[in-house]
Amino acid sequence: MSKIIELREKLNSEDDIKNLFNETIEKAKECNNKYNAFVTITDEYNHIDSDSFLNGIPYSLKDNFSTEGILTTGSSNLLKNYVPVFDSTVYEKLKNAGAVLIGKTVLDELAMGGTGTTGNTGIVKNPCDINRMIGGSSSGSAASVAAGVVPFSIGSDTGDSVRKPASYSGIVGFKPTYGRISRYGLFNFASSLDHVGILSKSVMDAAIVTDILKGYDSKDMTSLKDDGIKYVNEINNDITGKKLFYIKEIIDVNTDSEEVKENIRLFHELIDKIKSIGVFVEEVSFDKSLLNAIQGSYYSISCAEATSNNSNLTGLPFGERVEGKDYKEIMLRTRTDGFSELIKRRFVLGSYILKRENQEKLYLNALRVRRLIVEKMNELFNKYDGLILPSTGGIAPLFNSNSSDKLSNEYLLLESHMIIGNFGGYPSISIPYAKVNSMPVGITLTCGAMKDALTLNIANKLEELIKYDGGEYHV
Ligand code: GLN
Hints:
This protein is an alpha/beta fold. The protein is built from 17 helices and 13 strands. The strands form two sheets. An eleven-stranded mixed beta sheet has the order 1-3-2-6-8-7-12-13-11-9-10, sandwiched between helices. A two-stranded antiparallel ribbon has the order 4-5. Helix 6 runs antiparallel to helix 17, helix 11 packs across helix 13 and helix 11 packs across helix 14. It binds glutamine. The site of glutamine has 12 residues, from loops. Glutamine (GLN) binds next to loops.
């Protein structure tokens, strides 16, 4: 069911749109009190009339997208007063489509991390259970959709940052093919892995928003030529005869966790259901040593790129400066005081990896692992339409559990396989499919590069089949 169309049908005049804006702002304030989803709630009504599906529809935007004249912090102390002088392409497109921005959402600092606990304005709580994390890094975006404040939000996904919080909060998280949506004005984290993504309540809504956002942008050198397809028109195609696969080595976990076991049991049940509608699903074996290298190589590549990309955050040209006797001391103090532990750890790792003597062993080897995984995946995508797996092993973690920013973990593969989607730049979507211990869990469907329409089509049909009813989490 499309929330966007549902809302759209009620909007017949500028007054209706303005009233919805005011109502949504009130909800956003309440959402902030309960879950801390927003860095900024927009108090200025800014609507450009258009004839698109999104005309008058309120939405939220992760606080790492540049918005001219509106605070954009990356949830970092270093940028806590930064007001950009230009718009990101995503924001510009949404504005021109008549969508109405109601706020900028909290992220894990600079989009690194996956817990929603490292933003400089405090932790984001999961509307499904406030004792639990919502995951990250698009934490506030997910919370604002899950809590029913807005029908969609824009996030970014470098390893899983749209799909993971979507899965933990019972909503849809979609990232299209690398380059499909312009990243101009999105803070760079790891440029070879960064994607714009959409969080919404349905696959249809994700398609509606992607149709507006996609297309070539000369301001982003990784931008793709538009494929000329309107995804909403392809979403109901028959999927009988399509071929999906899942990876045995990821799903075969040896665990004591009842929650993970239950998730896997439910996944197998779902696979049977999918087969019953005439879709083939096969188990495929994948080189375990390559899979085990996913997380390590992801950290090597992303930390190296992040260190280089963020080397401009010195307090010198812009941002919060801590004074010192010379520029070196200013930079040292600014970065030492300004960044959270997680960021500093990653920049130390990144600098180490990028040292000339370490590059061959740590950086170039990580790139080789990435290439081997992508080559194998591309082979599989010649034979199959898509890869399907539980989005994560367990449910959203409690706040008192260990942070997920660590390199070893019992369920490593099930917790980190979404990175495959970023390694290959593949379109990938998480949709809610069941509850475990009263908490939502998602499945992730990943298809070959450029198969955005197919991804949304299959996901939409699976959504119809699953009929997930998460209940509504209202603010
Ligand atoms: N959780 C992953 C990380 O810590 C992914 C972050 C992201 O996708 N932005 O880097």
